Amino acid sequence: MGSFVNLVRNEWMKLMQRKSTWIMSIILIIAVFGIFGVLKWDYSHREESVGANTSEQRLQQQINTYEAQKSEAEPSSLEYKNAVEQIELAQYRLDEGLAPAEVGSFWHVMNTSSNFFSLIVLFVIIVASGILAHEFQKGTIKLLAIRPATRTKLLYSKYVTVLLFSVAIALLLLVSSLVASLIYFPYDSYTHLTWNGEAVSEWPAIFWILQSYLYAMVNVVVMGTIAFVIGALFRSSGLAIGITMFLSFATLPAMMMLRKYEWAKYILFAHNEFSMHLSQPFVDVTPLYSLIVIFVYLVIFHVLMYTSFKKRDIAV
Amino acid sequence: MTKSVVQLKGLRKDIKNKTIIHDLDLDLYEGEVFGFLGPNGAGKTTTIRMMVGLMKPTAGNVIIGGTSLLENYEKTISQVGAIVENPELYDYMSGYKNLIHFSRMHKGITKERIQEVVEQVGLTSRIGEKVKTYSLGMRQRLGLAQALLHKPKFLILDEPTNGLDPAGIREFRTYLRKIAQEEGVSILVSSHLLSEIELMCDRVGIIQKGKLIDIRTVKEESQETKWTFTVNQPIQAKDVLEQSFEGVDIETGEKSISISISQEEVPEYNKVLVEQGILVYGIENTKSTLEDEFLKVTGGEQVG
């Protein structure tokens, strides 16, 4: 076990010594501060038009909108379920006197920071594609493979490092978003509400943020794993980045088309955007169902990669 | 000296139904520098790759220090240090960070040991700099350092003098002999510089088309010296010498004759030739080098 930890330390050291890792981190920070700055400018110009309504009026408006949606939708449909949930939550806010997160308030902006996960997915794909393929492209794999560490350990020390990097860069996003929000936007208290189908529960605001981050992490892990597996199978980082990026862009329109079919729910790409469970799921399944489908696919990918990596000769 | 550290037993490698390495048997001994010689594509690197576990043999086994590479990989490989082809290191990191990296993959390598190896290979002044600023010779030294870190019993060096300047090569040679003798390490050197192998190694194995066709000790080679007499009448000179010295083997050239004799005999031969009125323009020692032998054995054939 000690030797595995050392392997992960090695991988982490190599990752941190690469310039590209730092460039990605700096791009993320600049993007957060830049886009939050633009948001602040935008919200300060928007205030006059929406300022007339009170938050109670807006909640009432929301209830009316969803009531209309509910009456039109089939009782078994996703739209119907979503409308019921939204009505329950808005009603609870009115009853308890809990203000919703106002546009341009601290917590509202914090929650939009999870949109930066599209950037994180890109960075994790880049890291996961290269972490093993670079060793083959540069020939350094030979010096790794002739040490008393089995290939399994080598492979998984790299995979663990990709996962650690995903968590680290997500934390960097969280911290820089917190700092940027504190600088740009007024702080106000907010209570987050959830609906489990029967009752509403209250949560501290930070839970709301962590939940959206955690949900977004699912896609990071899925795309990171795909990139890693392709990198390990083809031993080329460019190919792995290319294919995985293509998948991350092209599957959304494809799934839009396929979602109406019953078998769509067995496809990985109906589930990897796990954040959909926070608003409206793509296909009518529970979060647990999505996690199981994702898990099965990831296991298949790992088996493919593992058998290929262990068996093949290293001739570079 | 007779204790064998490495044993290759019937090592074979087939790639796509074609046999690349044919049932190779070889014993390498403690404190010995063994030269691995062969034309390009003969299977040197493939054999080395099987010895370090980069490739799986189709048949046969590699035994190092009494344990089998195939059955007890981690223990066996921990006794091996190697540079396979070019020493490809992480050029975006410093030399020192590279060594830290490799030291973490073995048990019990201290900072002092790293420092010691850095001094041994003569990189102390530049070890903190990024590898991308290193010359090929310095990379070669760093490659050697990473191979030596864990005090291996068996050291494999593929083309080790590539990129070293003449002074560096001399130093390297002395250093190899030293670790072989003092630490009882068995060293396998493959090189295309045949004269290098000759100066560095105790024994040489010649491989061709995946078969080990000859193993000889280098000392024997060096004793077999040849002298070339440049003369005006080679045919007559041969007759004259054959009359005076029985059983001598003389080759005639266009303007010369070649005889395999020791240095002490040269004046006598010269005297006979001069007395018989043959004009001797020059006498030259054309020591039969390993290169000649190598070309003779492999028929001068080159692949690729």
Structure write-up:
The complex is a heterodimer of chains A (316) and B (304). A two-stranded antiparallel sheet of chain A has the order 1-2. In chain A, a hairpin with a 4-residue loop joins strand 1 and strand 2. By secondary structure, chain A is mainly alpha-helical. Chain A contains 11 helices and 2 strands. Chain A is globular, with a radius of gyration of 23 Å. The mean pLDDT of chain A is 89. Chain A has one domain. Chain B has 304 residues and is of the alpha/beta class. Chain B has 2 domains: 215 residues, P-loop containing nucleotide triphosphate hydrolases (Rossmann fold), CATH 3.40.50.300; 62 residues, YebC, transcriptional regulation domain (Alpha-Beta Plaits). Chain B is 35% helix and 27% strand. Chain B has a 6-stranded mixed beta sheet with strand order 6-7-8-3-9-10, sandwiched between helices. Chain B has a 4-stranded antiparallel beta sheet with strand order 2-1-4-5. A 4-stranded antiparallel beta sheet of chain B has the order 12-13-11-14, covered by helices on one side. The mean pLDDT of chain B is 85. The interface between A and B is medium-sized, with 25 and 32 residues. Chain B: InterPro entries: AAA+_ATPase, ABC_transporter-like_ATP-bd, ABC_transporter-like_CS, P-loop_NTPase. Chain B: Belongs to the ABC transporter superfamily. Chain B: Keywords: ATP-binding, Nucleotide-binding, Transport. Chain B: It holds the Pfam family ABC_tran.
Q: Estimate nothing, just give the exact number of structural domains of chain B.
A: 2
Order of helices and strands of chain A: HHHHHHHHEEHHH
Largest sheet of chain B: 6 strands, mixed
Question: What share of residues of chain A is helical?
Answer: over 70%
Considering DSSP H and I runs of 4 or more, what fraction of the residues of chain B is helical?
A: 25-40%
User: Which sequence of strands runs across the widest sheet of chain A?
Assistant: 1-2
* SS class of chain A: mainly alpha
